[in-house]
Design brief:
Largest sheet: 5 strands, parallel
CATH superfamily: HUPs
Number of helices: 7
Strand content: 15-25%
Strand order of the largest sheet: 3-2-1-4-5
Number of domains: 1
Bound molecules: 4'-phosphopantetheine
Helix content: 40-55%
């Protein structure tokens, strides 16, 4: 019997800032991890962006959220994504598209990456419809301004955000 094609030995990278990780990211991680043998979720190390959480904190949150998935690794990278992917033996880059507004930026990146290393393919997954409006930037803005992000990020990420933006209230939640 001819062997059926397998993607078991495909290594993919899901790169991003993950500042912080959202339920949209987690949906994409779970779905793409079923399509490949190994998925490396990798945090861009770019302090110039002045992130809310350090790379180590973001990696720890990703680990905590993906602990039940067997074929996921968490890592960080700097420099060119395609060089990092190649050094990891990855042939696929995973990215999510939420809306038409994501398309132009993603297209530019995918084409530049293909020009740099044609052997690495970018694979786009459409965001789950329940997550198509979520972004790390908006989540941070809503929490900073006192809004509720329940259901948009894992519960423990919600707590970390509250600690970061409202440390006094978290330590002393009962108003005097
Ligand atoms: O979550 P983000 O911020 O949209 O992720 C962007 C990311 C990390 C995928 C992108 O900035 C990136 O790949 N940076 C690494 C530097 C690089 O390779 N630049 C050329 C890409 S065309």
């Amino acid at each position: 019997m001819p062997e059926s094609p397998t993607t078991d030995n495909v290594v993919a990278i899901y790169p991003g800032s993950f500042d912080p990780l959202t339920n949209g990211h987690l949906d994409l991680i779970a779905r793409s991890s079923r399509l490949v043998g190994r998925l490396i979720v990798s945090v861009l190390n770019n302090e110039a962006k002045q992130p809310l959480f350090s790379v180590q904190e973001r990696m720890a949150m990703l680990r905590e959220a993906t602990g039940d998935l067997p074929n996921i690794e968490i890592d960080s990278f700097d420099g060119l994504l395609v060089d990092y992917a190649s050094a990891q033996g990855a042939t696929v880059i995973v990215r999510g598209i939420r809306a038409v507004s994501d398309y132009e930026y993603e297209l530019q990146m995918a084409l530049m990456n293909r020009r740099l290393r044609p052997e690495i393919e970018t694979m786009f997954l459409m965001s789950g419809e329940a997550y198509s409006f979520i972004s790390s930037r908006l989540v941070k803005e809503v929490v900073r301004l006192g809004g509720d992000v329940r259901g948009l990020v894992p519960a423990f990420v919600e707590s970390r955000l509250a600690e970061r933006f409202r440390p006094a209230q978290v330590l002393n939640p009962v108003p005097r």
